[in-house]
Amino acid sequence: MLSLLRLFKTFARQPGCKSLQAFDTVVTHWRVWPGDIDAFGHMTNARHQTLMDLARVGFLLRCKLFKGVLRRRWKVPVGLVNLHFRKALKPFERCEIHRRIVHWDERWFYVQQDFYRGGDAARPAATGYVKTLFAGRQGAVPTA
């Protein structure tokens, strides 16, 4: 339920945001809620990936790609996720995800997503690397 509310929040925030190009860094803002916490008192590994997915939707919206993806009935599956954790995100803490495309080839986009704790832009609390593509009815859509 919390993820669905966050998805609605992602859609609601976009109309007032400045449009960006596909290779700009897109920043999304979040808060760690009690439902995001594991038995050890910090945000779960799985919730990091959920927020990364929501940041991907925000990226598509900000770059004006979302409507085209829907119109063409493309999917945006993830082929690989690799997360490096440095500091735990605690309950009620604010965080930002800075998302940018770092590389691409004929098929895949390689994306870096950094989690910054509220106000600490010096070093990310976690960094995620995602390999993703656009897939249509005929398979993978070329990155060109």
Number-wise, the strands total: 7
Sheet with the most strands, sense and barrel status:
5 strands, antiparallel
Indicate the overall shape: globular
How far from one another are the termini? Answer: 37 Å
The fourth-level CATH homologous superfamily is Hotdog Thioesterase
The mean pLDDT is 87
CATH fold-level label? Thiol Ester Dehydrase, Chain A
Range of helix content: 25-40%
Indicate how many domains the architecture comprises.
Answer: 1
- Identify the CATH architecture: Roll
The first-level CATH class is given as: Alpha Beta
* Helix count from the secondary structure assignment: 3
Tell me about this structure.
The protein is α+β, with helices and mostly antiparallel strands and 144 residues long. It has a single domain, classed as Thiol Ester Dehydrase, Chain A, CATH 3.10.129. It contains three helices and seven strands; from the N terminus they run H-E-H-H-E-E-E-E-E-E. It has helices spanning 2-13, 45-62, 66-71; strands at residues 26-31, 78-85, 94-104, 109-117, 126-132, 135-136, 139-140. The strands form two sheets. Strands 1-3-4-5-2 form a five-stranded antiparallel β-sheet, covered by helices on one side. A hairpin with a 2-residue loop joins strand 6 (135-136) and strand 7 (139-140). Helix 1 packs parallel to helix 2. The longest helix is centred in the middle third of the chain and has 18 residues, at 45-62. The protein is globular. The N and C termini lie far apart (37 Å). The mean pLDDT is 87.
